[in-house]
Amino acid sequence: MSVSSATERLVAQPSQSAAVPPFAWGGWTDARRRTLEALTARLLDGAPFAAERTAQVSQRVAQRIGTLAPHQQRQLGQALDLYGSRLVGWVVCGAFTSFDEAEADRQGRWLDAWAESPVPALRTAFQAFRRLVLGTHYTEAAVARAIGHAGPLHERAPNVAWEGPLDAATAEGDDGPVARGDRTEKPPVRSAALTPSGVVREDAVTGDMQRTADVVVIGTGAGGAVAAARLAEAGLEVVMLEDGRWFEATDFTEDEDSLAEQLYADGALRATDDLALQLLQGRAVGGSTTVNWMIMLRTPEFVLDEWVREHGLVDYSAAALAPVFARVEQAVHARAVPEDAHSANNRVLLDGARALGWRVRGATINAKGCVRCGFCGVGCRYEARQGTLVTYVPRALASGAVLYTNAYVRHLEVRERDAGSTTPPVKRVHAMVRNAHTGAVHALTIDTPLVIVAAGAVGTPTVLQRSGLGNAIVGQYLRLHPTTATLGVFEQDIVGSAGIPLSAVCDEHLHWQGSPYGFWLECPPFLPGLSAVALPGWGPAHASCMTQFRQLSSIIALTRDGAERTVSSGRVTVRRDGGVSIRYALTDADAARVRASIEAAARVQLAAGAREVRTLHTTPLVLRREADLTRVRSAPIASNRVSLFSAHVNGTCRMGTNPRTSATSPDGGLHGQRGIHVCDGSLLPTALGVNPQATIMALATVIADHLAARFGPSVSSRGTLA
After folding, report:
1. Residue 270 domain-assigned?
2. Is the dihedral angle over the CA atoms 177, 303, 589, 663 positive or is it negative?
3. Which of 106, 116, 233, 318 is least surrounded, with the fewest CB atoms within 10 Å of its CB?
4. pLDDT digits (tens, 9 = 90+) for 352-394
5. How many beta carbons lie within 10 A of that of residue 503, not counting itself?
6. Virtual CA dihedral for 194, 200, 204, 208, nearest 10 degrees?
7. Does residue 71 fall inside a structural domain?
8. Range of the domain at 90
9. pLDDT digits (tens, 9 = 90+) for 218-264
């Protein structure tokens, strides 16, 4: 990891606390403190309430640094030391001065020089503090209100037409995903629910524990929860282990500030090693299905044909999976979004694409009684989102499964049976249960003949590598659907923070230049912290853009990566110091698609009436007419020269019949190891070209049905094969 690598792990949606202890990081020196305060003041120059909150933001940075691993804390300190070096100041701005000593204009030249530096580590150091400071500042309630954000819906009545329930039912017995009723009142406040039977919260574990089970499922997201429910319903004794916590509906306070850190992996700071791509993965019961944007898209038939043809996955043809998709869609109440329910932001995508003659359609989402609050990315207070938290996990619990929360699996131990045995060897799962309130950590050890690893495309290869299990393909072929965005400025209110975030999709370019590897366009939620991080720039220029918050439209452009199918453009590995390395680099072919996707998104917004469109390049392109769009084709795509992120982290244990090119067999079984199966997005042999939630649930259904039929009648309640 480079000097500034850990720095940008502070990017994303940092939380702000009124009770932040002053500079709660042991690595602070007076020089570092002064440097960070000076950086904060310069980056926030011109922002609302900037002067009043500079000290708070600096303190929050210190608090976040204090939660990181010791080596990361050291690297962050070294990054600050670069800003504090007079010698660096001489090189950057021609004066023998540290950043905090420099005059305002020299500080500005320093930031601009690092933003566009040919040295990747310096670009990373600039972006790290820029995104952290701006994201922290704009999630504060008073600041968010100052730019026009209305705040949590459960505290007020809807204030735009695309927020809250629809006015009235269009037909008796309407079974759509959106609530219909009185829009003049705020949604009812839910009373706290009791934790379901079978959930063992971390504070209930008071000492080391040992037990057995027929099946241990690691992870409760789209793969793990589906597998757990099916196997429990087949009569097996199932134990689920979840690294995150259990959230009641009332825990989802619609506070972007505090919830992002709790609900996302690595406290919403997960990123590639060079921090060029921010990775958004859920870390709570329900995994990413608790924080995603609800869209349900079936795997395209041409992708499944590729899987059959190139990876031998004959059981995953379009014909074979069609009834499986139907079963999943029924289980999660997947329904088409009504035409009158789209937000203004999604209308930009629909209207702009239609004006261009491009293929675009309303989406299907897994929701029931959605009140269009816009806070999907930080959990659903109304239990409208039908993620696994409210569907498959309760099904598993109702069939006798047990769920341990805040249970982190370090490794698996395989206890071999006698030679010639026909039953799988017993696995010992080594987990640690952490009590967030007391800081206590207790060991949880489970013996089982069958392990389902569903910890996600970062967590799953990490567990397997730490256990010394799997072949050389484990961790390889990381696919991310690299995503960027364009920001359209309109005369009228768009208010991208309100309404169903993602209710339309344009897949006109999913086949691009004759290749099945292309890109597609969608809309994201656009809360204040997210928008502050996404908008390029700093200081007065950035603040001026943020004043247009209500008039900004955001379209995300997602690329189906892996066009060079034999190339592993990304990998996940365990470092020698125990940390996790995530490396990823766009191939030339994929970079060309990213550029084309930016141009297409901008074209849609202009066609929908935007007066200008801005890209997310460090120095943003400002596009006002069709002729401007060609500038995108030569714009840089290199690391930290354009903002990229991914919520689709897949492919690191891909399925296939050939162990030389795959990590798992078609039933998810780890090559060369009986009784260990993978059941999450890491199975995907290629990128999908669509959002993966429905695909992962379908694959998990097929694999779980196979395992239930194979092991169900022969597994005893003592966790050993009969």
Report:
1. no
2. positive
3. 116
4. 999 999 999 999 999 999 999 999 999 999 999 999 999 999 9
5. 33
6. 180
7. yes
8. 6-138
9. 999 999 999 999 999 999 999 999 999 999 999 999 999 889 889 99
